[in-house]
Design a protein that fits this description.
CATH topology of the domain at 33-171: ibrinogen binding protein from staphylococcus aureus fold
Number of strands: 16
Order of helices and strands: HEEEEHEEEEEEEHHHHEEEHHHEE
Helix content: 25-40%
Shape: elongated
Strand content: 15-25%
Radius of gyration: 38 Å
Largest sheet: 5 strands, antiparallel
CATH superfamily of the domain at 33-171: ibrinogen binding protein from staphylococcus aureus domain
Structural class: alpha+beta
Strand order of the largest sheet: 5-6-7-8-9
Distance between the termini: 86 Å
């Protein structure tokens, strides 16, 4: 059913871009080759925007959500007033540089952007790598693939993403876009996955949605062990794979019966047959429609949550200050009454002090305390500080 839908913004299924989907995005990005980098923005720790301008296409925004998505966005959201250090470094190297090439590395979720910029020494070349698999990273290299800067320093075994190291990336045994039947058979035969759908999804990097589609189109039970497939069944799976990789691009948002967004895909899939959909002129446009608004909503929810947290903290501080103020007001009232009592009993207190001073001339403090024991008004004498505790009756109570 090809009809426009107004999808509700509760899209939760798509958490990252698949390698096949990235292939279509990269194909669309070829139209940006020749564009100049006007500015680089870093919205938060793991989200960057590149403002690209070309004389023919005007301004476009390349959005990179590290470890998750990459596509052309129609606009950029509000950015921090003070850019992070990594963003400032990218600006220093890439502002006014031209995008001269873009490609997906093999069938990996990695995109390589080639830039050139005029300098006093001639032409400076840079390679920017956007890694979209978990945990993801952004890596800037010189023309010889030596790392100049990274968003996050990372190290696993022999792979190190730090300045002064050569950029290397993990490679799969085969590229789904170019694998032939013999290579395909070898991958199925040596797979340690318990089902053909997992072999397609993981070993070949198709991802769950497209591995399911291949199994569905081939008519093979997806739970069949890859090693147990008969020769004819292998042929059917490979034919379905070929159909998938040669499918005509047809970007769309797939919706559920309640108009919630179910998926965003670059080609029509049998697994989504008869579901409501909205078609787009490019896959980036479809991703932008589904994801950018989603990210904006999440950002707004984050701001609201932070505001509520700040307000709660302010309320807590205010309550504490009000409690302290009430305590001070009570203490002020009590001290004021004490002063009034002293004033009201000034003559009596003055006489007591004179008597004590006279007694001190004849007796020791120990003897004075002994004589005062049981006194109606004097309740204590501290010989170290000279303080005398007097009990006065408050007739106003």
């Amino acid at each position: 059913m090809d009809r426009p839908v107004h999808a509700r913004n509760d899209f939760t299924m798509k958490s990252e871009i698949a390698a096949l989907e990235l292939h279509y995005v990269v194909s669309e990005l070829s139209a940006c080759v020749g564009a100049k980098v006007e500015q680089v923005y870093q919205r938060d720790k793991r989200e960057l925007f590149f403002s690209l301008h070309s004389s023919g296409a005007g301004k476009k925004y390349l959005r990179i959500v590290v470890g998750k998505f990459l596509y052309l966005a129609a606009r950029k959201p509000a950015m921090p007033q003070v850019p992070p250090g990594f963003c400032l470094y990218l600006r220093k190297r890439l502002n006014n540089a031209r995008l001269v090439g873009v490609r997906q590395l093999g069938f990996e979720r990695i995109v390589e952007f080639s830039f050139e910029r005029k300098s006093r020494e001639g032409i400076a070349s840079f390679l920017l790598y956007a890694e979209l698999f978990t945990p993801g990273n952004i890596v800037l290299c010189d023309s010889k693939e030596m790392i100049l800067s990274v968003l996050e320093k990372q190290k696993w075994g022999k792979r190190t993403l730090e300045p002064k190291h050569r950029y290397e990336y993990p490679k799969k045994d085969a590229n789904v876009l170019t694998v032939n039947i013999d290579q395909f058979k070898a991958i199925l035969a040596k797979s340690d996955k318990e089902s053909v759908v997992k072999t397609l999804a993981i070993d070949l990097g198709l991802g769950g949605v497209y591995a399911e589609e291949v199994c569905f189109q081939s008519g093979i039970d997806k739970l069949t062990d890859s090693k147990n497939l008969k020769a004819a069944e292998v042929e059917k799976v490979f034919d379905a794979l070929q159909d998938l990789r040669s499918a005509k691009i047809q970007p769309m948002i797939i919706c559920g019966a309640d108009e919630s967004i179910v998926d965003v895909i670059p080609i029509d899939l049998a697994g989504h047959a008869k579901k409501p959909r909205k078609e787009f002129s490019s896959f980036s446009e479809a991703l932008d429609a589904a994801l950018s608004e989603k990210f904006e909503v999440l950002e707004e929810e984050k701001k609201i949550s932070e505001s509520r947290s700040r307000f709660a903290k302010v309320d807590e501080i205010l309550a504490d200050q009000q409690s302290r103020l009430a305590g001070l007001q009570k203490a002020e009232s009590e001290n004021q009454r004490k002063a009034e009592l002293i004033y009201e009993n000034y003559t009596v207190i003055n006489d007591l002090l004179k008597q004590l001073l006279e007694a001190k001339k004849k007796y020791s403090w120990q003897e004075v305390r002994s004589k005062l024991k049981g006194h109606a008004m004097i309740k204590g004498v501290d010989e170290r500080t000279g303080e005398i505790t007097v009990e006065l009756n408050d007739t106003h109570k």
